[in-house]
Amino acid sequence: MKHLLLVVTLSTVAGLPPALAQAPQSVRTITLTKDETFHGTVQLANANTVAWIGNDDDHTARLLALSGGGQTVWEAKVQRPKSTYLHHDLSLEAWGNRLVVAEILTRDDDKLKGKTGQLLLHIVDEQGKVSRKLVNQPPLDKREERTTFTGFVENDNYYMVSEYRKPRDVTEEFFLDRYDLTTHTLQHTKLELPARFSDKEDKDRFTDWVFGGHQPNRNFFYRHTGTPGQKSNFKGDEGFEFEVKILDNAGHAVGGFTSALHQQLKPGTYSYYSGKMPHYAGQGHTPVWITKTSSTGSGKVYSTTYDLYDVSMGAIGDFYLEPTTGECWFLGEYANEKYGPRHDSERTFGTFLQRYSADGKLLSAVQAPYPLKPSAQIREVNYLRRVSYLRAPSSGALTMQFTPARYRQTLFATYDTQGQLKTTAAWPSEEVKNLGTKLSLTAGRFCTWEGSGTSQMRLDALLAAEQDDPLLRRIAPVAKLAGEDRDNPDYLFLSTLPGNKGLMLRHHAERKGGFLQVYTL
Q1: Do 326 and 218 form a contact (C-beta atoms < 8 A)?
Q2: Keyword annotations for this protein (predicted)?
Q3: What percentage of residues in the chain have a pLDDT greater than 90?
Q4: Burial 193-217, CB ≥16 within 10 A → b, else e
């Protein structure tokens, strides 16, 4: 599931005022057949919610557009390529009140009359009528590979960001392909991004460009770089930085800057592990594994393989493009020691959040230590530790969550929209079997391509702090119901509506089929 996910803790619902604790109204039940699986939702400009229901038996998908009251506005069916599995490798994008479903054929498909490498577009209009287009993508040279990171709709155009790579030559170029949804023409535009770092010291870092997000006529990319003014040193950098480049839809560079994380962190603290790891959206770029070997005084030799493309270290620094303001946020954990080869025995000490304008002006920098109570184990970095982010739908507050694999506890820190700390703590104080119920916040897109620029929208997150967001607090009764079966809890999907209202789907999955319970808030 690649939506914004959070987990609603049941311990925070006690004592709510009656108006806030009032249960959402159940308005209908949507039954899934034995071959259907519910995957996610997209919200259109008119606030209708489109439910995406896949059928792996006949490689189709059922699309249901629901009004704010939960009633069906239209229903559509699209034919999927046989080479795809359920919801993987596709992009659903709201085009005003219409919907664009895009996927790339990985092999010839006789039923769709498509060829390998073609872009398959299904366009669903306001009445649910479906039209299909097959688009030839630019041809590849011999031994050239193409990775598509994301797609988005702007001004009646469907855009795709792709990287073209020749592994043997260790070269790559980025392109923005624009498909005009009205004239059905394709334009292939090279992006003016600097070449990758080639210094010997940089061979041990992930320095590829990562797609960080999109704003109107602005495409944000970033990569990790060393400390400005210092020679690159894998183990000894005083602080890793982010280089940001902004390009327009014509491929031209229109802005950019380099962060100053280490200058804003307190002396003796370090943005932990943010130098090696791309954010979650960038992990599918290039499968490179680096093995480091070190020896000890006893003569023993240790070899550590650094996996650059899985959330393996737990502690991570990340880039987040604030969708409303276009600000660049850098956030993550910090430690009191520099990054070292025995990373799995080191511990983090708190979180940080720095906000920059698109032209690189520092707007705020906050560093918040964890409370003294959490044990060393909950702060210990290990490859099974989960990293998650949550934006509250009404207040916009951002919560970071870090959860050890073998502990039923989480560390969290919540910052407001101005980058100021609201609260930080560990929850709960004792281990429990289940941390809560998963909730997905519906957006205008649902993309499962690697590199969609929405890393912070993709991982399980924990609503561990008591929230002042009225919509989230109102769902508490259904959250309790959804979490009754702790071994197989239901999923909740929430679409926000004007006036602190919402539409919520509770997905109950069974081995074959299941159902969607629809609620109004």
Answers
A1: yes
A2: Signal
A3: 34
A4: beeebeeeebebbbbbbbbbbbbee
**322-345: buried (b, 16+ CB within 10 Å) or exposed (e) per residue?**
beeeebbbbbbbbbeeebeeebee
Q: What is the DSSP string of 28-87?
A: EEEEEPTTEEEEEEEE-TTS-EEEEEEETTTTEEEEEEE-TTS-EEEEEEEEPPTT--TT
Residue 482: domain span: 4-520
Find out whether 53 and 62 touch, Cβ atoms under 8 Å: yes
* 45-49, 196-200, 290-294, 370-374: least confident range: 290-294
Q: Assess contact for 374 and 407: CB atoms under 8 A.
A: no
pLDDT by residue (tens digit) across 429-447?
554 444 456 778 888 988 7
The answer on pLDDT for 137 being more than 70 is: yes
**Cα dihedral sign for 158, 82, 284, 288?**
negative
Question: What's the CA gap between 461 and 495, in Å, rounded?
Answer: 17
Question: How many separate domains does the chain show?
Answer: 1
**Whether pLDDT at 281 is above 70:** no
**Structure tokens that stand for 66 in this block:** 């629901």
- The upper half-sphere exposure of residue 183, i.e. CA atoms within 13 Å in the direction of its Cβ, equals 8
Compute the average pLDDT of residues 261-278: 70
The pLDDT value recorded for residue 314 is 38
Measured CA to CA, the distance from residue 481 to residue 475 in angstroms comes to: 10
Dist CA 102 CA 133 (whole Å):
10
Tokens 């030839």 locate to 136
